[in-house]
């Protein structure tokens, strides 16, 4: 993405099939021009100062640099050149603000200078090795033209700035900036890797992996810096466009002093920083205030849960970020970022919608308020010794159970008398010798006592005796082997659409099995949907109508999400599925009214919201037979 100097025009580019470059009017949010480019797409782009031209760098092993006059109807570049092999993968390009016919781009290993005129685009790639200045140069990060000079500056991952200047014979005068340049000087600024280089007014600005933003004068002498932002390594800095901005010491305000002996007011434009931790923040120079504009997941998103009464969905990731979204209004209601070591692995709402249980990869468990995400239990539970993969509440919110990769089930009990810690540890049991694939609560047929069951790859269905369990003594009521050769993958309760009470189990042999919830005997075996891989997650859609009327079951495979009509009868026309995420579906959740499904994509960092249209499935089933 790139923006014009006045921030009026924004250009976006993509990669993959049918890739394009789109120019947008930032005032209206309407696309005004689309340029179609060849696969595999674009890796970098930039505007000229007058926003008339766009420069692009293509992806792939053979990269092409092109100049586009996007204000015309032509869909072909006016200039284009293919870079030679051995110049690395270029992912940054910028125009000379004083001369739009000159550009510079860089990869990790080469800086390339361009000049276009007379119908052709020429480039120069001067080499620079560690032996030239007898010092390690480091991998290049970004480059910039120093205004009103012939020099170009390039930052490196070794904390250096390379100064490039015209390659002219000794003794000849400098006749203006040209593309033929050579390394002139290597200036070591710091030990930390430099990731950003830009200019604003008379300052040269750098940012680094430590989260510092530093300002230098034209002689690369440190003028001032900002630190302690606490938002992670910085990978982008953008200054406000204010034509009327004129820094003066007489300007009122709470500006910090600069780093010179005179300690004059350091007056600069407000700026926005972007970080590798997916945060965007506004830094107001007057008062040095940091306002977080946006924070997103920058790691795997696997944890997902829907509120039992409200249109809210809770999303957690390995980045430690927990967010609650109103999926009807499409707005984030509240968010919380945990410590870096606390990677969220699973979530669960209690049936009343008061609490959210948050399980982490390190085995910790927190119970937080569903509206504020503040801790309701003061200290995290640490009774699990490995990643928590499952967590759920009983129907009456009296119990909370978790399953972890250490093959243990841990149960917590509600304590209504303790307002500061509404849940306390009850007990822990390792009843499986292989990975746990499901943990669920049910209800006893002859009473309202919650039942807790767990299922593992060891083909054993375990029921726990919650009534007879005491602190640090979770008792097992029964342990039944339910499979001989197949491996069970997930389970859920069967809705009351038949007289018998069932548990549904999906296995790796494309079978769905109905087990009597009391005797644990298999009462029916049905062909499961066959969409490439066995079912990984199943969940019965909630309903706002009669619970014994037409019901549906949502499911996910490795990369698809689907819907199945109930009752289960093995008819393949009663199910359908669509591809959900290119790199796999990691979790599945249903809205409280059954109108929407949510899927988490894991490494792609996204959550998809799906509208459930049961009428279409009913029609397809009748047509199919």
What is the fold's blueprint, element by element?
Elements: E1 2-3, E2 9-13, E3 20-25, E4 30-36, E5 42-47, E6 53-58, E7 64-69, E8 79-82, E9 92-96, E10 99-106, E11 111-117, E12 120-124, E13 140-145, E14 152-156, E15 160-166, E16 181-188, E17 194-200, E18 203-208, E19 213-216, E20 222-226, E21 234-239, E22 271-275, E23 279-284, E24 289-295, E25 301-306, E26 312-317, E27 321-326, E28 331-337, E29 344-349, E30 355-360, E31 365-369, E32 388-393, E33 399-404, E34 409-414, E35 423-429, E36 436-443, E37 450-456, E38 460-470, E39 473-481, E40 488-493, E41 502-507, E42 511-516, E43 522-527, E44 537-540, E45 552-556, E46 560-565, E47 575-579, E48 587-590, E49 596-600, E50 607-611, H1 614-624
Antiparallel strand pairs: 1-2, 2-3, 3-4, 5-6, 6-7, 7-8, 9-10, 10-11, 11-12, 13-14, 14-15, 15-16, 17-18, 18-19, 19-20, 21-22, 22-23, 23-24, 25-26, 26-27, 27-28, 29-30, 30-31, 32-33, 33-34, 34-35, 36-37, 37-38, 38-39, 40-41, 41-42, 42-43, 44-45, 45-46, 46-47, 48-49, 49-50
Largest sheet: 4 strands, antiparallel
Tally of contiguous helical segments: 1
**Radius of gyration (Å):** 30 Å
Span between termini = 50 Å
The percent range for strand residues is over 45%
Structural class based on helices, strands and sheet pairing = mainly beta
**Total beta strand runs:** 50
Question: In percent, how helical is the residue content?
Answer: under 10%
Dominant shape: elongated
Report mean pLDDT, rounded to a whole number: 92
| Strands side by side in the biggest sheet | 1-2-3-4
Low-confidence stretches: none
